[in-house]
Write a structure and sequence with these properties.
mainly beta; Immunoglobulin-like; 4-stranded mixed beta sheet; 4-stranded antiparallel beta sheet
């Protein structure tokens, strides 16, 4: 098993492989090791629209961190400061 934690400035439901995970942002989520597509539910005021990533060699105490950045609803340009996924330190 693998673990991820999804970060976003608002609480949103996390969508994994087009299925609601039942978990929100900011919570460690258990997933199968392997490739997954991660999205957020709700208003699409974030970038990127989804992240395609591989989960492996993670633990509940050291999950893969997935970060979505909020965009201004009036400005369709990316206002991304940092878009990344990494192990939580």
């Amino acid at each position: 098993m693998g673990y991820i934690i999804v970060r976003f400035s608002e609480t949103r439901q996390v969508i994994i492989d087009d299925v609601g995970s039942g978990q929100n942002t900011g919570v460690v989520i258990e997933v199968e090791d392997g490739r997954h597509i991660i999205k957020l539910d709700g208003e699409t005021n974030f970038r990127p629209p989804s992240l395609d990533l591989v989960v492996e060699e993670t633990s509940e105490l050291d999950p893969l961190e997935v970060v979505f950045n909020q965009t201004d609803a009036k400005d369709e340009k990316w206002r991304s400061k940092i878009i990344y996924y990494s192990q939580v330190q």
